[in-house]
Q: What sequence folds into this?
């Protein structure tokens, strides 16, 4: 089965394809260059379905979309759905990281807990033999926010996210290690389980 | 009774003095130029007490401190305690406003509810006739976040906060009107009630 992944981010397509294909032989994940809707939802689940539905409608193929973000406890779960645009107009990974570190500058170590969260929405168009279906899964990667960026692998907030059980940032892990541990990896494996049980 | 207000912000001293003195004849509010501690608390209440305790210790006088902020529902109550430093290092009112508007750019009108919140902590040192006392009160001003700044009165997030019952921003109200409606006004009146019942 082929899934379209509703993102223009090639990092994500590679990550999904690598994990999903290894868990479920015969499944592959394709990139998508169709329209990207405004993510006007107010939760990961809403935004993921907004994107997956547009891709399914545009391509006619089973479509996946994830909405992921960093949830910092002392920020009541923010940046959350605002992770990629946290620093506003023209946001970049490094500006987002810099802003978050500055916001948390006075926050003591014991209050720096955070989680990467990933929700994957699946939209499967109706076929001659089966009705349309929608489902979603979630993956959570616990850790805390460092005092300064570290490491050059990864993207987004990886340089300041120290996963539980480590004393280095997610950007210091090698890609294989991260692909095994990450919130997206956890969500994709959960998805593989659900699809396998189908 | 004279209270020291633990802030270097002269706007706030004037606001407290005006409201508290008019509600409680004989009470006045003094400015403070002593040490300002790091606000390392993770709630308005904690930060207010951190500041009031330092001022009481430094001056030996009954001391007040407020911790106030803008709580946006779709941001799970943030900027909250981070309101004044929302845009990070070198934050200014206009940068904070600009960042918040950019973060909420895709958020539809029905999800733009927000409240200004103000907690006032009171620390009264022990005297010969009475032991030390601590208490706190809270004031809440409901409204929503506008699409663009408006008005030139006020400070902080006033230009983008539209109070419930109005269709203009808090920065468009005249100072008397705002002093009557604001979160700080509500908290200060609550404080006056508590002090009057003493």
A:
């Amino acid at each position: 089965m082929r899934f379209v992944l509703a993102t223009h981010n090639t990092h994500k397509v590679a990550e999904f394809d690598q994990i999903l294909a290894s868990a479920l032989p015969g499944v592959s994940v394709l990139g998508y260059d169709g329209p990207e809707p405004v993510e006007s939802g107010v939760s990961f689940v809403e935004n993921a379905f907004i994107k997956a539905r547009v891709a399914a409608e545009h391509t006619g193929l089973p479509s996946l979309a994830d909405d992921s973000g960093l949830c910092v406890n002392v920020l009541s779960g923010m940046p959350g759905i605002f992770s990629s645009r946290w620093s506003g107009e023209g946001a970049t990974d490094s500006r987002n990281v810099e802003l978050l570190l500055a916001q948390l500058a006075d926050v003591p170590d014991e209050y720096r807990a955070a989680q990467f969260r990933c929700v994957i929405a699946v939209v499967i168009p109706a076929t001659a033999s089966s009705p349309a279906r929608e489902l979603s899964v979630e993956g959570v990667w616990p850790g805390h926010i460092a005092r300064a960026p570290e490491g050059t692998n990864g993207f987004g907030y990886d340089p300041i996210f120290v996963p539980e059980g480590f004393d280095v940032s997610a950007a210091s892990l090698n890609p294989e290690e991260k692909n095994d541990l990450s919130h997206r990896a956890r969500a994709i494996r959960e998805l593989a389980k659900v699809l396998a049980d189908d």
Remarks:
- The longest strand of chain B covers residues 133-145.
- Chain B has a mean pLDDT of 93.
- Chain B has one domain: 2-197.
